[in-house]
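Worked example (supplementary).
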Amino acid sequence: MLTVQYFARFREELGTSQEQLPMEGFERVECVLKHLSQRGENWEKILGDRNQVQIAVNQDMARRHTPIKAGDEVAFFPPVTGG
Amino acid sequence: MSEQVRVQLDDFDLSTEVAALRDGHRDIGAVVSFVGTVRDVNDNADVAALELEHYPGMTEKALENIRQKAHQRWPLQNSLIIHRVGEMRPCDQIVLVAVASRHREAAFEAAHFIMDFLKTHAPFWKKETLPNGETRWVDARLSDDEAKKKWLDASENA
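After joint prediction of all chains, the assembly is encoded as:
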């Protein structure tokens, strides 16, 4: 299984903060994004915007090509605005 | 997690924190502190309240990482990052970065570096409430990204 988390605007607009996904040949983060984008127009619009989607794997900043494995925690969120 | 990185709901007191930062270090000659506060106006609209969301676990890890990078780059005696989360109002304090070193140059630069990376690498998100009750997520600023890049360029040229 893979734990997927969503934060801030993504959490609100996708209507979920966390879910478990079975590992269906997800070798890299981009495979998960592709899978999630097939859920519908809203998912595709939000997760398809390359300039807006930031990624973390196991709580470290990551990229689309970052490899993933079962048990990993993957998070998707908009650009950060702290400080 | 280090006591030198704190993510908390509560406010902080600058004098208390700076005193703790200096405590036991007789070789400190410079302390630079930065306090970020909530403005009552942003992007041409009045702001009534601010909600700070974060990614528990990753936030602390990211801030500690930024702090360690500053220590590797400058000779620092001590440093501290406090970032608040939750509900805040205009004039409230949001963030404190304090850095202590033998000489001022390292302290000024390290504090600046920590804030620039905190702005672009630490998973916090601001949501504003306007006076009419409407809410909106704050957009990231391109200028923050540019500010961070100058540190990367400097190290590449070094």
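Two points are worth noting when inspecting this output. Chain A touches chain B through 16 residues (CB under 8 Å). The domain at 2-77 of chain A is CATH 3.10.20.30 (Ubiquitin-like (UB roll)).
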